[in-house]
Amino acid sequence: MAQQQEAVISDQNVTVKQTKNTASIVFPKVSQSQRAWKDVLDGLTKWPIWALLAYQDIKLRYRRSILGPFWLTLSMAITVYTMGYLYSAIFKMEMASYFPFLVGGMLSWTLISTCYNELVDSFTSSEGMIKQMKLPYTLYVHRIVFRNMLIFFHNLFVMVPVYVMFHDTVHINFYLLALIPGLLIIYANTAILGLILAMLGGRFRDISQIVKSLIQVVFFITPVMWKPSALPPEKAFIVNYNPFASLIELIRAPLTGSLPEPGTYAMALGTTLVGMFICWQLFKKYRARIVYWL
Amino acid sequence: MSRIDLQAVHVEFPIYNVNARSLKKSFIHLATGGSVMTDANDHLVVSALKDINLTIEHGDRVGLIGHNGAGKSTFLRLVSGIYEPSRGDIKIEGHISPILDLMHGMETEFTGYENIILRGTFLGNSRKQINEQIENIAEFSGLGDYLSMPVRTYSSGMMVRLAFAISVSINPEILVIDEVFGAGDANFMERAREKMMSLLTRASIVIMANHSDAIIREFCNKVALFEGGQLKYYGTVEEGFNIYHGKIG
C-alpha cells in the first residue's frame, strides 16, 4: 500500500513537470466577445441544421394526421372567424372593417407571442442537445423563430376567405410587399429579444412563468382585438409607446392593404436596436455559462 | 498534427436549487463525485474537474478510467467543447468528432433513412456527402428495407445497429467516445468491433471512457485516471490500472 502511495506521489511529480512543459505552449487568448461573435456567425451559417430542425418539429407534430400541418391553418381559422363574428357584435363594429383588422392582427399576434413564449424556454427545452453536441447557442433561437415563421405562412391562408368575403373594404395590393421587411424586422426582434429571454429563462426558472403571464397581459393592452381609434386621445400613449403595437402593425397593415406608418417602423427598429445592445452585452458575458445553468 | 493541451483547467457547476446553508457539513466530503464548495454568492458549486494539466499528442489513444462521478464524462464534454473551462486554458488542434450518446438525435417517428439524413446534417455534411454515406450505412447496419420504416417499429437491437452505423460513418481526426460498445447481437458485435477498430486507427487521437478494463487494454496505449475530479495519473496503461485497482483493493 505504501508503495502504491509513493507511485501516486511520483506521478504527481510527473504531472507537475508536464505543467512546466505546457507552460511553453502558447494558449490563444480568445476574448469572450470573439467567441460570442463566432457563435452568432456560426448560428447563421449552420442554417441547414436549424431549418431542418424547425421543419422536423412541424412535421413531427402532424405526422399521420390527414390534414397534416394544415391543422394549423384550420384551428387558426376556427379561432379568428369565431372571434371576428362575436367581437364585431360586442363592439358594435362594422363587420367589413373589423373582421380583416382582427384576422390580420391575430395572425401577427400569434406569430410574435408564440415566438416569445417558446424562446424563453429555448435553452431549457434543448438541454439534451446542448449537452450532447457543441452547437452555437444562437442556433436554438433560430430554430424556434424559423419554426414560427413557417407556421405563420400556413396561417396566412386564413386571410384568403377574408379577401373574398370583404373584397369591398380590403384589397390585396402592392403594399403586401411590405410584409417582407416587416417579417425581417420581426425575425430580428424576436431572435434578439428571445436570446435575452432564453438566457434569463435558463438561469432563473421563474422567468419563463413570468413572461408567459405578461404576454397574456400584453394581449389586452395591445390593439389586436380593439382598434387604436377606439382609445380617447389622452390614452393614445397605450398604443404609441407600445412596441408590440408596432410589431403587430408591421404585418397587419400590409395584409389589410395599407402601408405601416414611418413611426411604426421607427418604434419597431428602435426597440430591436436597444435589444441588440443589451443582448450583446449579456451574451458576451454569459454565453459560456449557459450550459452550466441547465 | 492533432494535439490537445490543457493547463490548470477547472470545471465547476453551480447548483442553484440547493441552499448551501441547509446542507449538513458532512455532505461536503464525499467519496464519489467532485467536491462540493460554496461560491461568493453562497451557491453550491460542484467542482467536477480540478486543476487538470494534460497534453495529448498525435497517435495517443487515451482510455479514461475512474469511479462513477470521477469526472470522465465531464472531461469528454470539456474536450468536445460543450463545457468551456470555468478557469484555465484549453487548446485543441484538430477537428473533434464526439460520440457521446449513440441514440442522440434519433427521432423514432422518422424512418431509418430520414434519421441518417438528420444526423448527417447535424455533423455539417452536405446533402451530396450524406447520399454517399447512406449506402455504406445501409450495408453496414444490415437493416435492408427496414430503413424505409419508422424507427419506432424497430427492435431495440435494430435501433442500436442503426445508431451505431450512423455514428461510426465519420472520418474522425480527434475521436471522443463515451461508453458505446456492446451493440447488437453476436454477429453484429463482431462487425461493430472491426468497424470500431478501423475508426480508431484512422483517428489521429482517440479519447474514450469505458468501464471495461479489457476494452481499454485492447484499444488504448495510454490511460488517464480520474479521482474526485482530479487527474491522478496519466501514462502507460499497465501502471494506470495498477494504481487504480490498488486503490480500490
Structure overview:
The complex is a heterodimer of chains A (294) and B (249). Chain A is built from 15 helices and no strands. Chain A is mainly α and 294 residues long. In chain A, α5 runs antiparallel to α8, α5 packs antiparallel against α11 and α10 runs antiparallel to α13. The longest helix of chain A is centred in the middle third of the chain and has 25 residues, at 95-119. The two termini of chain A are 41 Å apart. The model of chain A is unreliable at 1-22 (pLDDT under 50). With 249 residues, chain B is of the alpha/beta class. Chain B has 2 domains: 3-94 and 210-244, Rossmann fold (3-Layer(aba) Sandwich), CATH 3.40.50; 99-203, P-loop containing nucleotide triphosphate hydrolases (Rossmann fold, 3-Layer(aba) Sandwich), CATH 3.40.50. A 6-stranded mixed β-sheet of chain B has the order 6-7-8-4-9-10, sandwiched between helices. In chain B, β7, α5 and β8 form a beta-alpha-beta unit. Chain B is globular and about 55 Å long. Chain B starts with a strand and ends with a helix. The A-B interface holds A 1, 4, 7-8, 11, 14-15, 18-19, 21-23, 25, 27-28, 46, 48-49, 52, 56, 60, 63, 128-134, 288, 291-293 and B 5-8, 12-14, 16, 53-55, 77, 80-84, 86, 89-91, 96, 98, 100-101, 104-105, 107, 109-110, 118, 121-122, 124, 231-235, 239, 242-243, 246-247.
